[in-house]
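Quick start: read one record
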Amino acid sequence: MKTLVIGLGNPILTDDGIGIYAVRALRQRLPPDAPVEVIELSVGGLTLMEAMVGYEHVTLIDALWAPADRTGEVAVFSARAMPETLNTRSTHDADLPTALRIGRSLGAPLPPDENIRIVAITAHDVLDFCELPSARVLAAIPDACEAVLSLLRVPVLA
């Protein structure tokens, strides 16, 4: 069973980079022979969809914008629960649900929506330039890693 974990974000935009930082922490918990590929991407839409081609299970770790008082919470949901976003109005790219629909219509071997899980860390400061996430968002990395590990069901390093 081909499984992929993708850490998403832009690590120079404060909390937006949390998916990248979380996947780096996750790598340290996985044994070298874990049947999981772990990558970092700073893309979305069609390019993100293309990275999922050929996998049966995909887990995305990403920031989810929230009000400042809700930062640092971890949420887990499937791609089926994702709404279309304003990116569907862009001529440059599409949101993930639209990209998956396009890929499937073109015959791309993509996992079903229920096999695409999103582990999101709520974040507020996603536009300011800074190479370090805010303290509350950083503090959520262990919980996000635990959420991913429970989805993967693979042995972990102590």
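The mean pLDDT is 89.
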